Amino acid sequence: MAMVGLFWIGEDSVYVGAEPEGAASGVRLSEDGVEVLGAGRGRFWTWDEVVRIETRDVPVRSGARRLASMAFDAALVAVTGYGDLPPAFSVEVATAEETVPVDVHAAVTGGIYLPSEYELSVTLLQRLADGGTDIGDLLAWGRDHAAEGTPPREEREALLRKWAGA
Asked: Which of 162, 120, 118 is nearest to 137 (CA)?
């Protein structure tokens, strides 16, 4: 799996945020559509049914502020011995009939996204929902490259620009 923007990309699916484990909630994007995962959630919509996918409360900071936050968190864990799960943010999947909010965990190291990757990711989510981009492009990249791990920042941004048509 590899992290590119808000997406955790594997060979057969893409998650918005981290891939959920156990009963944790999550949002999976596949060739067939959008699926909400987690205990008691289990919802699925085809791409034709989805009209909007939006995020809320995503932790975004500039490079310097991101590094400072990560250093503070590491020091806190070292002193107290307690670590937290990555920060959560909300993903809303909307159809013509309903809007379903889902909390997901950040996939990025330190739990804080850079503004450029966040903005490109939001654009990509809009294009996926309106049919302007095909999830197959992300999945094809995942089949070829996800096993290599998360690419460097410049490559992630280039991928997001390409996929979003930005």
From this structure: 162
Largest CA distance in the chain: 50
Alpha helices in 40-95 (DSSP H): 63-80
Predicted TM-score (pTM) of the model is 0.84
- Secondary structure (3-state) at 40: coil
Alpha helices in the chain (DSSP H): 63-80, 115-129, 135-145, 153-164
Tokens coding 117: 């990757």
Instruction: Give 19-60 pLDDT, tens digit per residue.
Output: 998 888 999 999 999 999 987 778 999 999 999 999 999 999
Q: How many Å apart are CA 17 and CA 152, to the nearest integer?
A: 18
Reported as a single tens digit per residue, the pLDDT across 84-101 is: 557 899 999 999 999 999
